[in-house]
Amino acid sequence: MKKIVYSLLIVFAASMVFLACSEDFLDCYPTDGVSDEGVTSSTGTAMASLNGIHRCMYYRGSWAGASQGRVGISSWMYHIDEQGEDMVFNYSTWTTHLRWLHRSATNSYNTSPWLMFYSWIANANVLINGIDENTAGSQEEKDFIVGSALTYRAFFHYQLVQQWADRYVPGETNSQPGVPYMFEAITEPQPRVTVEEVYSNIIQDLEDAMILLEGQSRKNKSHINIDVVRGIRARVALTMGDYATAVSYAQQARVGYELMDSATYSLGFSMNSESSGEFMWAAQITEDQTDKWGNFGAYISRNFSSTSIRSNPRSIFSVLYDLIADTDVRKTLWDPTGEHLDLQARGVEIVSNASRYPYTNQKFIAVSTADSRCDVPYMRVSEMYLIEAEAEARQGHDDLAAAALYPMAVARDPSYTLSTNTGQALIDEIMIQRRIELWGEGQRFFDLKRLNLPLDRTGGNHKSSINGGLMEVPAGDTRWTSLIPQDEMDANPLMTQNDL
Questions:
Q1: 272 vs 381: CA distance, rounded Å
Q2: Rounded to the nearest 5°, which phi and psi values hold at 219?
Q3: Average pLDDT for residues 197-201, to the nearest whole number?
Q4: Where in the chain is the domain with CATH 1.25.40.890?
Q5: Minimal CB count within 10 Å: which of 4, 189, 243, 488?
Q6: Contact 442, 82 (CB under 8 A)
Q7: Beta strands 455-456 and 376-380: pairing type?
Q8: What is the pTM of this model?
Q9: Helices (H) and strands (E) in the chain, counts
Q10: Is the CATH code 1.25.40.890 the one for domain 1-73+99-216+469-500?
């Protein structure tokens, strides 16, 4: 693992704590910038390092392969959705994930995120293992930093195991190869542990983080608090089919947050996450920290004037769109005509040379045609209602599932009535709600994989010529799991490859 994972370890310069007002604050720096001891000499320097991880979640990092279309978690989110059926391309640009070409062991869109996540894990491990009684600062500050770093370590391994390992199968031993779980920032090659072990370690890290973050406040929603940890724990439990645990943590996580009202929701997501009770965890990009052509909004907003958006504005799968009730506010977040006259009527400009296609989204709105900033929604309270509803339904608790779904569904559609569906029909209703609600937020491919469902892009507005002929993939096909990057295979004698 030495070459691929640790040759470009990112440890953030401790001196950055003194540069909080400069443009370079919270940037990502290579290993030779500062020693591990320097990073953890005080809670001030350690917090600067933690802030570096926060920033790299939405900023182009210095790991190998980082580029305009590979910008932290923000890119990861829309690439995950591109692999599903609900995000539609209208033009053949940047179709690597759409066509599942990223799965190749030599594709840069495979190598880059693998390195990205392990680099961030190494940064987190420096903080987890380096903060001790010799670190200057209060115990409360130390607990916050270590609790946040533990959460990141768990969250990044969770992304890795979902993409580079076969699915977790509830009720089975899950002895299939997972990914290396890194507890230290070391350079020695490491073997893959089982999928079961990866998830056990993720759970332990999250439980330890919750203890340290109990009662702790955060400066803004780009930081982690105990609610975020509980939300991640609910996601992990859902993936594992541990539905009772998913219900418990989803209920705990959403306390104190409020669903967005319909009028606000109809305006789409832009720069309002910090003030909205809907958002539990999100990145807010300031003007002096923008990555103009790499921001989330540079690829998925409707109005920023980038080549990607002008030629290939993202659409919703028309089959899914047709399932949205006419009284549901979310139906206004996509325009079946592609003209977006209502958007322009309220002062949101779309440049004249931008292509128009049916069902294009106006869920995500950048600041302007020249400013691609758009808050990145890592977690919203609506997801917690959906997790609870699905988990109850999959336990056969129809009444509890319908009751959990109702607050979110009626907030989006005032004509919605408490569901009387039962069994599979109720599960299907909840999953449709989930697909609509979380479109573009990096969930759909992982939902298909965890539930062992097929990919089916037929019957709507997907074009086989754009998708490279990839319209259907059976459940259980080897293509659901990405190959381990070849650089990793070459450098790590303990690594084993996934099935071709």
A1: 15
A2: -75, -35
A3: 99
A4: 1-73+99-216+469-500
A5: 189
A6: no
A7: unpaired
A8: 0.94
A9: 18, 8
A10: yes
- Asked if 473 and 350 count as a contact pair (C-beta separation under 8 A), the reply is no
424-434 pLDDT, tens per residue?
Answer: 999 999 999 99
Tokens of 355: 């292509």
Q: Which of 250, 203, 237, 247 is nearest to 391 (CA)?
A: 247
pLDDT of 35:
59
Does the pLDDT at position 7 exceed 50? Answer: no
The pLDDT score that the predictor gives to residue 60 is 78
Residue where the block lists tokens 């029909």: 425
Cα 169 from Cα 240, distance rounded (Å): 7
Tokens 């949101």, residue located: 348
Task: Decide if 47 contacts 349 (C-beta within 8 A).
Answer: no
Q: According to the model, what pLDDT value does residue 65 have?
A: 60
The answer to whether the CB of 366 falls within 8 A of the CB of 373 is yes
DSSP H or E run through 335: strand 334-335
Q: What are phi and psi of 89, to 5 degrees?
A: -90, 145
H or E segment at 279?
Answer: strand 279-283
pLDDT single digits (tens) 441-480:
999 999 999 999 999 999 999 999 999 999 999 999 999 9
Q: Could you identify the residue written with the tokens 């209060």?
A: 138
CA atoms 132, 136, 140, 145: torsion sign: negative
Using left for φ > 0, alpha for ψ between -120 and 50, and beta otherwise, residue 442 falls in left
Backbone angles phi, psi at 177, to 5 degrees: -60, 135
Residue 31's pLDDT is: 34
